[in-house]
Amino acid sequence: MWDPIEHRLALLELHDAGRLRRRRSQGEAWAWLAELPWTRRSGRRDELAVVEERREDVRALLDQVWPAWEEARARLGQAGLPPTERGWRELDDRARAGEIAPLPPRLNRRTALAQVGPHSKASLTATRREAIGDADVTRDGAVRLRPSAGLRVRRDELDLDATRLAWLLGELVLSERALRDGTRLSGARPAAVLLVENLGPYLDLDPPEGWLVAHVPGWNTRTVKLLLDQLADTPVVHFGDLDPNGVRIVHHLREHRADLLWAVPGFWREHVPDRALAARWPEELDLGDAPPLVGELAAAGLWLEQELITLDPRLRPALASLSARRA
What we know:
Blueprint: H1 5-17, E1 19-21, H2 27-34, E2 39-41, E3 47-50, H3 55-65, H4 69-78, H5 85-97, E4 106-108, H6 109-116, H7 126-132, E5 136-138, E6 142-146, E7 151-155, E8 158-161, H8 162-169, E9 172-175, H9 176-180, E10 184-187, E11 192-196, H10 199-204, E12 211-215, H11 222-228, E13 236-239, H12 244-254, E14 261-262, H13 272-275, E15 277-278, H14 292-300, E16 302-303, H15 315-326
Parallel strand pairs: 4-5, 11-12, 11-13, 13-14
Antiparallel strand pairs: 1-3, 2-3, 6-9, 6-12, 7-8, 7-10, 15-16
Helix pairs in contact: 1-2, 1-3, 5-7
């Protein structure tokens, strides 16, 4: 029960502060303490308060499950940190920062966090960012592309035919590091860029002539934004699922490209009676700029997957007309 440091810190916080908020990492300890006569519910939601005449019982339990608790509390106090889980994490971060070897000039975010944090998936706090120093931290995404005719890629003196590369490799893949280090699109500019959410449609749809097709799965947009920075004057169209997450992705992309066009062809509505799937649409989701079909689906608690219309011959001219209206 008290092996996890988070649980022992919950006990320490209750002893020192007299109160303890429920937190996910300390949920088991909080629930156990809530059942004891040593605590009572405070006036705040999900908060325990110690019964003052039973504080010594809390101290006795600390002595039993964490013999070195007073030394740990002293270390926190010397560092000017509170006796809480957050304070302990900060104390650990400062200790690691003083011990790490010099870092390379560039490294992946997960690699960096494994050096300065408790594990590779930890959050990048201010203390951890400071410990990383001047190192360039990357997420190292990649954007998968179906190049348009005449498109080329260039870096320094090397200039290659993008369509030939895609023929050789199956598709063109550009990494975040390549784009940041100077790889550029050259040659004939695409008539438009089509961002496709799911892998099947990305590979199988028939795009309008001269269109560049990019796979943009979910929230993995950092790398595609680097690509779109090179295509500031090119129309950009997004084609994805008509569900709550699909709406969020459009909003996310429009933070970078306010002129993003949303592909929701009218014939998609034909599939609602037989192929729409049940979904819960959050009331707070902003549908103010959504096409009418999206609002209808939200009201009915339904969603449509983009794979349904990927092979429909009407999709190609619908995409082309959408881009033409933007122009």
